[in-house]
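Limitations

Structures in this collection are predictions, not experimental determinations, and the ligand pose is part of the prediction. Treat each record accordingly. The example that follows, with magnesium ion as the small molecule, is included so readers can see exactly what is and is not provided: the inputs are given verbatim, and the output is the predicted complex.
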Amino acid sequence: MKRIALLGATGSIGLQTVDVIRNHSDEFELYAMAFGRNLEKASPIIKEFRPKLVVVQDENTLQQVKSEFPELQVRLSLEGMYEAATHDQVDVVVNAVMGSVGLSATLGAIEAKKQVAIANKETLVTAGHLVMDAAHRNQVSLLPIDSEHSAIYMCLNGEREKDANKIILTASGGSFRDKTRAELEGVNVEDALNHPNWSMGAKITIDSATMMNKGLEVIEAHWLFDMPYDNIDVIMHKESVIHSMVEFVDKSVMAQLGTPDMRVPIQYALTYPKRLELPDTKTLNLVEIGKLHFQEMDMERFPCLRMAYEAGRQGGTMTTVLNAANEQAVDLFLKGEISFLTIETLIEKALEQHSIVHQPNLETILAVDEETRKRVISYVK
Ligand code: NDP
Ligand code: MG
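Predicted complex:
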């Protein structure tokens, strides 16, 4: 029986993780869970699984949880998530919170030598060197939940990483794949939230529309698989059937295919190295699909992808700025305060105005993150 601490339980990945735990109640126990404020989604999970520890984002939610579940241990905020992630009864930490707020819990889980299943890609973008250094020191393997990285993990299948020549990430193109830049001028939040292939949280859906999601994934792949940026390619593949590929030194290419269902990578990260049945997912029918399409990525059409490669290559605090500026800009867009194309303008400006710090420690990363968010707000106010 694996005891799980699930961070971000009320989100898109969180709820699908709950589904996986429910399907395999003989394998997994939901021991601890963290969420923000969404009590409507959290309440039924608490009732069903009776976790020993619950973490919430603010005092108000804490009081509500305590009055509904008086016997429960409830904790607050980042310290609470850290406690859940490092709890001595916990075997596996699933980090599915949105944003760089997940960083200290990830680091804590690694230092406590937990098995870490990571969806929270912002953690790796903002402080990849610290996370990977901690993972190597503690001999903890990070199991990716992001579908592309799960695909790469499966394609590598334990082969020596140095035998892999290249990583090829596929991109579905997001909600605005077929729009020109001119057509992007007037798009609104509702249009952007309408992703053709995947149903996900709001922030990552916007990231998919701007192509920043793929940019973050390039950086995530760089850290997870120790691959130089020159050896990470992105190609457009609108069907989302091939979830990513690895080219080996002998030019042999491995690809992982399947219908789009995040429970596949979530479950694999929990059961690795074995697999379990996933009863109600669709089988891939290639005959029905007929054709798969591939296209080169246009860096002018998708400047966020270009900026992510550039920030990644510069290294140091540049990716911290990229991530924080993006989180802040997307938040402003979701609140209706800026236009869609202003997202990339703000990120570009934040990157231009930042003086890089090489090999930043945790304190520097947290400070740069906070400072960048303030700066992005000051650009619009
Ligand atoms: P959602 O927005 O759906 O969920 C985010 C979760 O994090 C919610 O449970 C939310 O709580 C919680 N949360 C946010 N801020 C805090 C905080 N300060 N303290 C505690 N909890 C917090 O996001 P997704 O599930 O879509 O994505 C989660 C992560 O997984 C992201 O990093 C994303 O990039 C990554 N990912 C997601 C994929 C997907 O298919 N959705 C695919 C691949 C990666 P509440 O809602 O209660 O406030
Ligand atoms: Mg992905």
